[in-house]
Write a structure and sequence with these properties.
single chain; 183 residues; alpha+beta; three-stranded antiparallel β-sheet; two-stranded antiparallel sheet; 27% helix; binds iron/sulfur cluster
């Protein structure tokens, strides 16, 4: 009987303590949550970077990335050269009703075409509206936070060095023309 009474008192103590404690509930949507910048809210597509390599669609465990494309051929610029073919993106869609937010597509994309945005306010009344086509995925790019600053003590990436060498070559004046002409 004594133990039952002490348990009741302990319970009431907890109830009382929480009654007078200030609430920590955020009143969403009046108060927006402060999410870390790298939160997995929605996936944004930078279309220019996409080469239609299909890696993301193949690796997605939920099969919720849909890509359609066609090939276009650019004729060779010089005689005897080879024509060049390009993949042109017709459709890129992600079905967020199936997406598991696992980030595999973003990790495997070799061309940085997919990015996480912390935006999460895209609930819909109709589940089919959770299929975001490429125009909508592109719009999310505006909400992707900039990458963190580079470590000033870090080694310079070899890509920057190569780009600097290429730019210096382009900026160099052309070799002087021999007035006597070719021998
Ligand atoms: S986050 Fe995962 S489930 Fe969602 S589209 Fe990317 S790979 Fe598929
Ligand atoms: S992995 Fe990247 S480049 Fe390849 S299709 Fe997907 S988004 Fe495009």
């Amino acid at each position: 009987m004594t133990r039952l009474g002490s348990g009741l008192l302990a319970g009431l103590k907890v109830t009382w303590r929480n009654l007078v404690r200030r609430s920590v509930t955020q009143h969403y949507p009046d108060v927006k949550p402060e999410l870390p910048p790298r939160s997995r809210g929605v996936i944004a597509l930078q279309e220019e970077n996409c080469t239609v390599c299909m890696l993301c669609a193949r690796e997605c465990p939920a099969w919720c990335i849909h890509i359609d494309s066609h090939k276009e051929v650019t004729p060779a610029e010089v005689e005897g050269g080879r024509d060049r073919s390009h993949n042109m993106l017709d459709r890129f869609a992600i079905d967020f009703s199936l997406c598991m937010y696992c980030s595999i597509c973003i990790e495997v994309c070799p061309f940085d075409a997919l990015h996480w945005s912390p935006e999460f306010e895209y609930a819909e009344h109709d589940i089919t509206d959770l299929v975001h086509e490429k125009d909508r995925l592109r719009e999310w790019m505006w909400t992707v936070p900039p990458p963190p600053a580079l470590d000033p003590a870090g080694e310079e990436p070899k890509e920057i060095k190569a780009a600097e060498i290429a730019a210096a070559k382009r900026a160099a004046p052309p070799p002087p023309v021999d007035p006597a002409g070719p021998q």
